[in-house]
# Entry
Amino acid sequence: AQTVTQSQPEMSVQEAETVTLSCTYDTSESNYYLFWYKQPPSRQMILVIRQEAYKQQNATENRFSVNFQKAAKSFSLKISDSQLGDTAMYFCAFMKGFGNEKLTFGTGTRLTIIP
Amino acid sequence: DVKVTQSSRYLVKRTGEKVFLECVQDMDHENMFWYRQDPGLGLRLIYFSYDVKMKEKGDIPEGYSVSREKKERFSLILESASTNQTSMYLCASRDSPSVEKLFFGSGTQLSVL
# Structure
């Protein structure tokens, strides 16, 4: 079974600074996908970024980027120029293969952006 | 945009009651999921459904059942609610050929007293 570990239950950072959230996973699969989801106080889960394991290039979405280290099974999220609206729970998730597969989530990191 | 609607945002029930949590999606998605979210435990999968009348157990199915009679609706049933089922319940859907993302509802915070 796959496991996803987020070792930072809470983090805080000053507005406009850069913050990195950690995620490690354990799998024997070779074909899989990794995701970061954001859950603001509204409770609506939002996909932030996704990474295919077969791609060596790290995914980037505006201020959000990942550092995907396949050999180390590490998938960290970097938020640049952090904004107050980035305050949320962030969940790392894993999905094997393609199609009718479930997502396995980590325990989450509560990120607070300080004005 | 895809909309996933959960029937209640907050729900309070008594121990032993039969509880129905309803989820409806409007984009003809084949896959639907029920997760529960607890502090320090993240999201854990209860049940999922690949298509109408199909269901698969997730990681924590004990004490729950599901029903999917129509493609757009996926119901989670607590046959006899217990206090340890007090939690946030999140429904999600996905168009099966796509791995792009899950679409989530806004969650139901269930309290069992």
Q: What stands out?
A: Chain A has a mean pLDDT of 93. The radius of gyration of chain A is 14 Å. The CA atoms of residues 55 and 109 of chain A lie 25 Å apart. Chain A touches chain B through 23 residues (CB under 8 Å).
